[in-house]
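Need tokens for this chain, all 238 residues.
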Amino acid sequence: MQTVDYLRFGLQPGDVVLDLGCGEGRHTIAAYAGHEVTVIGVDLGFADLQTARQRMGDFDEPANDNKHWLFMQSNGLHLPFADQAFDKVICSEVLEHVPDYEGMLREINRVLKPGGFFCASVPRFWPEWLCWALSDQYHANEGGHIRIFSARRLQKKIEALGFGFRGRHWAHALHSPFWWLKCVFWDSQDQSRLVKAYHRLLVWDLMERPWLTRTLERGLNPVMGKSVVMYFCKEPVS
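Here are the structure tokens for all 238 residues:
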């Protein structure tokens, strides 16, 4: 399930890309599979990184010297990379988990080259607020969401670091009702026929990508997309 639109992000051959908070590697794998880039996925979770490495095995091209990948465990507040090491940085569905998210933004700014691009995605305010209203357990658990972002305020925080805003879109509208249902039936979601049926719909949509659901989601994304996705350029210092 891809949140970042790589056409908007403008990956170029030879780019060095950081996927910060890569989890099980969905954006790292997509960047590597579709482009001639070097991509590094970083996460704190060792188990997620193991899963990501296993999944990358289906896409690895060891004979191709024009593209490379690496997964590594690291704290996003203290990245083991030199200043201005990356052409592009992705941070998707991560900042809502991080107590010192502003410190992570500063670290992203440090490792990104002037003129480089940064993509940040977080849960959209009102679908996320409804999840919090329906279930405390949705967010009050280890590793859960600790804040609800206003996209406009987050944009201003990022711009204050010297980034220029380049646009936004919304994603995963069909997933919003799924999470609302999970919140309503939180204690019994594993037994809920409704939750299970909706999950089967999402898996079918993900695997088959039928015209009907793809068109429906594109139409609903501006209204109820689960994620807001924003793109920035680190402005060169004059």
